[in-house]
Amino acid sequence: VTPDRRITGATPTSNGAYIRYVTATGGVDFSRGQQHWSWYGWHRRLNYQGANHLTGHFALATADENRLYRAEALMRLNRVAEAIPLINVTRTRAQRVGTTNFPTNLPAIPAGLGANDRLPLVNNACVPRRTDGTCGSVWDALMYERDIELMGIEPTRSWMDRRGFGQLRTGVWVHLPVPARYLTSLGIPKYTFGGIGGEGSAVCTAPITCLVNP
Predict the structure, then answer these.
(1) What CA–CA distance (Å, rounded) separates 88 from 68?
(2) Which of 41, 132, 148, 159 is the most exposed place for a label (fewest CB within 10 A)?
């Protein structure tokens, strides 16, 4: 349940602007585990020249991406007041779901908050909300916007973001090892990274939550 109209419409089983509620199972056998299936599918590419979600033209680099990178840079410089308006661009932007126009989406992050200050409740809701049920911080809001707006642009971007923010789960690899076939060609022993306690593995010590929900 979320007030973010990019994710759903007015109800959890209605389409959002970027995410669609999927009723077809695609032949998935639920007896093998429901973790293999989600009722929510990313369909934002449908907004590009009428293409379906698997083909057609779509963005590889966007103004939103650059804006949100700039917001992160400003926050790391403790210039949060300058970063908040940049985060609010995508957060509050008008959305269209089906034939319904929403002139604004989420409430703007109020001016004057610090990087780790929690967002206020608006109509008993906040986005993003942490897994413990509390409202997320300005840092959380930045990461949330990056996840929602930059999804599908580059497959490793979200992992790289979480590595940079210290949000990778403990044990997840933090380096990309050289592919095994190149090691074999060069006569170098095979190796890998990751695993709890292993070389090149993450330990989640972020000042912000390791997991953020819509």
Answers:
(1) 10
(2) 132
- Listing DSSP states for 67-121 in one string gives HHHHHHHHHHTT-HHHHHHHHHHHHH--EEETTEEES--SPPPPTT--TTPBPPP
Residue 197 corresponds to which amino acid? G
Sole residue written with tokens 């989600």: 38
d(CA 184, CA 181): 5
Total-model pTM: 0.83
Predicted confidence (pLDDT) at residue 84 exceeds the cutoff of 60: yes
pLDDT at 147 over 50: yes
> What is the number of alpha carbons within 13 Å of residue 126 lying toward its C-beta?
20
The tokens describing 173, both together, are: 């690899």
> Nearest 10 degrees: CA dihedral of 98, 100, 103, 107?
-70
